[in-house]
Amino acid sequence: MKTSLEVRQMFLDFFESKKHKIEPGAGLIPQDDETLLWINSGVAALKKYFDGSVKPTNPRIVNIQKSIRTNDIENVGKTSRHHTFFEMMGNFSIGDYFKEEAIDFAYEFLFSKEYIGFDVKDAYFSVHPDDTTAYSIWHDKYHIPADRILKTEDNFWQIGDGPCGPNTEIFIDRGPKYDPEQIGEKLFFEDLENDRYVEIWNIVFSQFDGKEGQDIHTFKELPQKNIDTGMGFERLMSIVQNVETNFDTDLFMPIINEIESKTEITYQQEPMAYRVIADHIRTLVFALSDGAVFSNEGRGYVLRRVLRRGVRFGRNLNIKESFMYELVDVVIATMDNVYPNLHDKKTMVKSLIEAEEIRFSKTLDSGERLLMSAIEKAEHHLIDGKTAFTLYDTYGFPIELSQEIAAEKGVDIDLIGFNEEMEIQRERARNARQTHESMGSQNEALMNFNESSEFVYTENSLESSVIALIKDGTLVDVLEGEGLVITRQTPFYAESGGQVSDKGTIENDSMHADVIAMFKGPHGQHVHHVKVEGQLKMNESVSLTIDEQARRLIRKNHSAVHLLQSILRTKLGSHVEQAGSFVTDEYFRFDFSHFESVEKDMLDEIEYELNEWISVPTEVETIMTDLNTAQEMGALAFFSDNYGDQVRLVKMGDKSMELCGGTHVGDLAEIGCLKIIKEESVGSGVRRITGTTSLHAYEIFKESEQTISTLREEYKIPEQKTLEDRFLELEDEVKNLQKKNKQLSQEALKYEMIQYQKDTLHNDDGLSVLYIEKELQDMKDLKEMTDSLVQSVDIIGIINLKEESLNIMVRLSKEAIAKGFKAGEIAKSLAVLTGGNGGGRPDFAQAGGKDLSKVAEAKALFMDKTKVSL
User: Fold this and answer.
1) Using 50, 70 and 90 to split pLDDT, how confident is the model at 528?
2) Which of 484, 516, 546 corresponds to the end of one domain?
3) How many CA atoms lie within 13 A of 374 on its CB side?
4) Which helix (H) or strand (E) holds 330?
5) 210 and 159, same structural domain?
6) Which of 202, 435, 509, 615 is deepest in the core (most CB within 10 A)?
7) For residue 363, what are the CA distances in angstroms to 68, 309, 358, 366?
8) Distant-in-sequence, close-in-space partners of 403: CB < 8 Å, separation ≥ 6
9) Coil, strand or helix: which one is 451?
């Protein structure tokens, strides 16, 4: 039996022999792509090739890509092949081979005895009805009988606008064992849910430029046709290893065996619970290792939901304590031969999962309270679907658990309403995918333009010639207004790696153009986005000049970010990794993985040491080398990043050594000074430091100096005394004044109490009743007043008038409560009369009103409610 490691290597070796370049799979968090929440397929990490924005070094690519999809998470564990985390095996052609060779490769790998060796007689195929080419290859070249080829309109791959096309799929018939009702081929041809006919390979012929909502027959042919294939690794292994489900392969069984050691309930007794936990812990380990964190939104919310589902199913196995973090070790042991970065992140991942499990345990308790409350309030012994869905979605309660607990109390759940809410959520997810996962359309002019251009790091201004002008996606000879310009050389840096692009001008004697943005073209050229005054012509000589002052400040801020990352790893630990950065001429922003706030004393220490570093002249070197050499030198590089054959190493003495393509100072002393502005959280496990350098840092220090000067003048603080000393003195003065004020208030209260005794009335039950009107009083003071009054008055009602509203307070003695009076009811009636609401306990209540014109009526109502005869 072939192991997963053997099949994995076989796949890569096969396509390498077919002249494909093995491209390492990308990290699960998309880089420079805000349209995706996760890398969710093999092609997702290669969109830049498919839309033509980047040209690969080899047009033939093969990879095995980590992927996450959670749009149908409720099916994980129910079926044999749904996963949240999975690996997608894929081979890709970027403008190279097309349909015939793609099908040839699939056929050889799957059915040749040298490789997987499936029997082609067990295979079924699908094509799009219009795709006569694919049909002919299967039927005429490989002699697949027509009655094993399904023609279906569903075989067309399109997500939003951009590259799309028909696809062909390969299915394997697993035999009657997986067809308990003996339905046969109808399962395949009518696309019925089944475990017998399993899709294992999908080839997408990306040949059209699609437009959402339009008839596919109107789509234009793409200038660059591509091949995108995908084969689910887990699904393939279940067939290769001839096991019942994906979960019974060597990818999952070590995890399942580990779960079995924690409970007396076996895998055979509760297979769904085991499968959910095994799937979800893989998702968590890989996602957290790649830099994701738990949070209340975005991908962090997805991870929180995945963990909570795993914990819930652990309870089905009678595992009550935190346990999922203990499964991290076995996941890493199973996969670290392929993903060595997992071992380095093990301690961090375990601590994150354990902390989240503890947090969820408290949430479950809250959910149980909500469920019990819903049971008590259930009308007609039925909990509405929306409440049941809130329990499921927010508190992690499976609907089955809610049903079970409710049934014990004789209450049902509106499953129709619950399913409607579930469908609304699915529809939102589908709409989000349709909106956000499409590729960009191919820019044919840029894709076909092959001439090289050079970015010159060391120049701020230079002369060069125009080699391309593009207007509305078309190459032109003359450019007017807004468009794109490529020159033979340029001093302009294109936005990349968090550093903003340069701005400046392009001009000659007959025209002037403002450069408003820069980006890299498909072939690596630096493309200027410009607004032209006059006419810019092909082959003209032009002067290109960047904004030198802005560039200097950007360089200083960018170099500061490198130093900051280095010192954070030293001070806080090697778990610190960049989670994002943004560098402009005005400030820098650095996001990093860390689990708690950085205390002010530590920030002050970091800021001081960074300024120490930049106070000493230290040369900043840039070295071009290969990745292995850079890592041997000790350069900071992260597994989730993709690097080319040559890398640019930025070395700042012994303070920092990092791979980077951005612009930097030549000497650390150029930075001048550095100021940390603030440190904050941007999500669970991710912190952000914002700071600035040079002139902007000086401006902050100067502003602080001016503020101190103003305070000294305002509070008459002599130079020999610190602000802190003076403010401590002021604090003491305030405390003394507050003490005197309280004494005076108590004296005034004594006088008021004498007056209130005179105003006290008696009701029909012989209880003393006092009504008071106040203006603009603090409610805390009024509460203290009722504490004193209730010693001698049974019923106290206070209306406190404000500018546009009023407060109501009612206080009762034990005797009044014994007579049946309730403070909450009285306060609420007065609040409703005055356009508000409120209530409280039988002995004390507060409320609010809005209508000041009703005060007299409120007084009369209070007397009526307290049985006072006027």
Assistant:
1) very high
2) 546
3) 25
4) helix 328-335
5) yes
6) 202
7) 25, 13, 9, 5
8) 412, 413
9) coil
**pTM for the structure as a whole:** 0.64
Q: What is the dihedral of CA 248, 249, 251, 252, to 10 degrees?
A: 10
Residue ending a domain, among 527, 546, 565, is 546
H/E element, 166: strand 162-173
**pLDDT value at 701 more than 80:** yes
CA–CA distance, 658 with 637 (Å, rounded to integer): 7
Tell me how far apart the 2 most distant CA atoms of the chain are, in Å. Answer: 110
Beta bridge partners of 487: 466
Q: Which residues pair with 679 in a beta bridge?
A: 689
For the purposes of burial, counting CB atoms within 10 Å of the CB of 226, is it exposed (0-12), middle (13-18) or buried (19 or more)? buried
Q: Count CA atoms within 13 Å of residue 654 on its CB side.
A: 1
Taking only Cα atoms into account, the Rg of the chain, rounded to an integer number of angstroms, comes to 36
Q: Are residues 40 and 112 in the same domain?
A: yes
116 and 260 both lie in a single domain:
no
Q: Which stretches of 409-565 are assigned E, i.e. beta strand? A: 412-413, 454-455, 461-471, 474-475, 478-487, 489-490, 504-508, 511-520, 526-537, 541-546
User: Which region holds residue 112: left if phi is over 0, alpha if psi is between -120 and 50, else beta?
Assistant: beta
Cα–Cα nearest to 328, from 313, 312, 344: 344
Which residue carries 């980077």 as its tokens? 660
H helix runs in 112-168, sequence order? 132-136
When pLDDT is averaged across residues 843-861 and rounded to a whole number, the result is: 89
What pLDDT, on the 0 to 100 scale, is given for residue 662? 92
Q: Mind listing the pLDDT tens digit for each residue in 435-487?
A: 334 445 567 777 778 888 999 998 999 999 999 999 988 899 999 999 999 99
**Closest C-alpha among 501, 511, 588 to residue 547:** 501
In 3D space, the residue among 227, 207, 212 whose CA is nearest the CA of residue 438 turns out to be 212
The verdict on residue 638 lying in a domain is no
Residues 200 and 152 in one domain: yes
Question: Do the beta carbons of residue 782 and residue 789 sit within 8 Å?
Answer: no
Split at pLDDT 50, 70, 90, the class of 640 is very low
**Backbone phi and psi for residue 345, each to the nearest 5 degrees, phi listed first:** -100, 5
Lowest-pLDDT range, 204-218, 576-590, 635-649?
635-649
The answer on 101 and 212 residing in a single domain is: yes
CB 234 within 8 A of CB 201: no
Is the predicted pLDDT of residue 388 greater than 90, yes or no?
no
Distance (Å, whole) CA 475 – CA 469: 6
DSSP 475-520: E-SEEEEEEEEEESEE-PPPPBTTBPPP-EEEEETTEEEEEEEEEE
The whole-number pLDDT of residue 449 equals 85
Count of all residues that appear for the chain in the document: 870
Q: Give the C-alpha separation, 345 to 789, whole Å.
A: 64
* Residue pLDDT, tens place only, 344-368: 889 889 988 998 898 887 777 777 7
Q: Alpha-carbon distance 667 to 618, whole Å?
A: 5
- For the ranges 432-436, 488-492, 773-777, the one whose mean pLDDT is highest: 488-492
Task: For tokens 């697949």, name the residue.
Answer: 144
CATH number, domain with residue 690: 3.30.980.10
Task: Return the H-helix or E-strand segment holding 316.
Answer: helix 298-316
Task: Select from 312, 249, 276 the least CA-distant residue to 79.
Answer: 276
Do 345 and 433 meet the contact criterion of CB atoms below 8 Å apart?
Answer: no
Q: How far apart are the first and last CA of the chain?
A: 98
Residue 89 and residue 77 in one domain: yes
How far apart CA 112 and CA 222 sit, in angstroms, is 33
Tally of domains in the chain? 7
Give 248-280 as a DSSP string. Answer: GSTTTHHHHHHHHTT-SS-TTTSHHHHHHHHHH
Query: Which range of residues forms the domain containing residue 739?
Result: 715-755
> How distant is the alpha carbon of residue 525 from its chain centre?
31
314 and 384 together in one domain: no
CB 131 within 8 A of CB 207: no
